Structures
1.
Amino acid sequence: MANPKIFLIVLALSIATGCAVTHKDKDYTKFNAASPRSILIVPVVNRSVEVTAPDYFLTTTPIPVAERGYYVFPVNLVKRVLEDDGLSDADLVHNAPTSKLCELFGADAVLYIIIERWDAQYLVLSTIVTVELTYIIKDGKTGETLWEERAIMTYEPQSTNTGSLLGDLIAAAVTAAVEKAKPNYIPLAREANKKALKYPGSGFPPGPYYEEPSGR
């Protein structure tokens, strides 16, 4: 019989951190036909109430996309060039023709990302931090959608067990207050990227510069 302590630890971890990646079997016909070598990551559209979310999240995207085997244009440079071209707002960028965006940089495809949620819900004795994202890759020539995915990550920090009910309640309240004041979004955003881009799975096929990680 399995050790009951190990079972309880695993159960607690599963409650503390949750992930949902909504996907079904992908059709990669268009993606493979387009065969992109470079992906332009444009500024993120923010539908959350956190005004700093787009800039923070944008820093988490280039590395995982590059690790999929694609050339990725420097996101800060991309943002500056778009601003100089009159596209200073992320919504304007997302509504601009994909072909125009690709022509500016010589890119093969564009990755659009929308932050649906980026918040911390305070529940007195706990704080649930949530990151919800929509990813879309469009072909630079036709503007057709080549790949699309949505990922949700949640995290609820666990308070320290002090051995007394009053102590546990105080510790839980302090933990919740700290997490509410400074929620840890970036690890969740990175994990959302990891889950959404996973292939085989919900992600897109590896590109021409993909290298199998060492140790496999």
Note: The first strand starts at residue 17 and ends at 22.
2.
Amino acid sequence: MVSDIKFGTDGWRGHVAEDYTFANVRRCSQGYASYLKSQGLEGEWVVVGHDRRYQGENFASAVAEVLAGNGFHVYLTDGPTPTPVISYSVVAREAAAAVNVTASHNPFTDNGFKVRDENGGAVAPEGLREIEENIPPSEAEVKRTPYSEAVDQGLIVRFDPAPDYISHIEELIDLDPIREAGLKILVDPMWGNSAGWFPRLLEGGSTRVMEIHKTRNPLFPDMTRPEPIPPNIDAGLNATVEKGADVLVINDGDGDRVGIGDEKGTFIDQLRVYGLLAYYLLEVRGERGPIVKTISTTTMLEKLGKKYDVPVYNTGVGFKYVAPKMLETDALVGGEESGGYAFRGHVPERDGILGGLYILDMMVKLDKKPSELIEVLFESVGAHYYDRIDTPFEGDREQKRKRIESADPDVIGGLKVTDLITIDGYKFALEDGGWLLIRFSGTEPIIRVYCETTHQDRVDEILKDGLRIAGLDVDAL
């Protein structure tokens, strides 16, 4: 049976051996090859990489065979490679595009197919729709050159992407102060692709880098999925305290997201990390430029934008919206609520390795531990509190949508509603500058309810009101 292949916010993902099969990966690859041809890129080089999930290297080889069969040349990574490294390889190798075989932070049951453009960034929504439209209905319509034959013809070339990426990182940040700071850094790569990268980048000085969950294990023990948020990071937070580390740096399965735990074993949520990164770039490094943010992330950025006189642009959720806006505005930084952040001078793609290095550099330059960095940030923009709940739902999505649209609340969580923003979902602006966002998952029957507020004691009530507006059980909180 042939299954439909639909692209979500960051490519296609499916269940291995159900819809994510070699046949469907080849069909998807043919759709991408046809799309690239329609863009006048036939014969160009395409970078292909993969993560540490089950059969990742073999799925990547299958992608490379199809691209070769369509007349493209392929740079195939010589092992599991972080998404940002693959993205930078597009630029470094002057390639036309990239495919990364990864399901990122999804559960162990899944794998995925991420596509990147000539800038190393996410393909815009209209491009993703064209790729979908070009996917053939059966494997019989797929063009393919067997791997060994493609290698012999020079159509597939194995390469090590690390040297180019490391050289570029050293242009963006001076690593020597971090190496010589005497820090005790714990890194949790969540069994994923960023394992070994921080020790390699920071070796040679008095700073000590330790890793947990660093081997290949596609079952992702100690976590439900390799996503750098609680409870998946609880083992890392506990180890931070046990080992007396100064900081915990966490990357998701493919290394494009970053999470931070402080020296006390407390998680610093993604919105605060984005606030810290923006403050670091604007205040500590003295840089200036626009900030791009998805609608689901922090209003601390608007406050920083006003303070440093830089514009702030809001987009829909997903880097398929963030990356084009960054390129359009020459943004200083772009990011989203999931813990993905991109930086000017690099590629318009999330980079959990560079994001982690910037936090470490901020610690060194300000001589502060992570909990103290939060105090510095809050002195600038005031305290902000965030939480989110994802709830499965049954029934008709359109009925749920109509219910939310017709709610028209005056007050949420005891705070007056000042505006309704519908860029992506339903975002109710609140009188304290905070917000409640209700939006549907693009790939699953899940409603996501998020909030940010300056009132710590009102977080639960705001979320409960959000669940009520969506017609969901408040006991889910």
Note: The chain is about 35% helix and 20% strand.
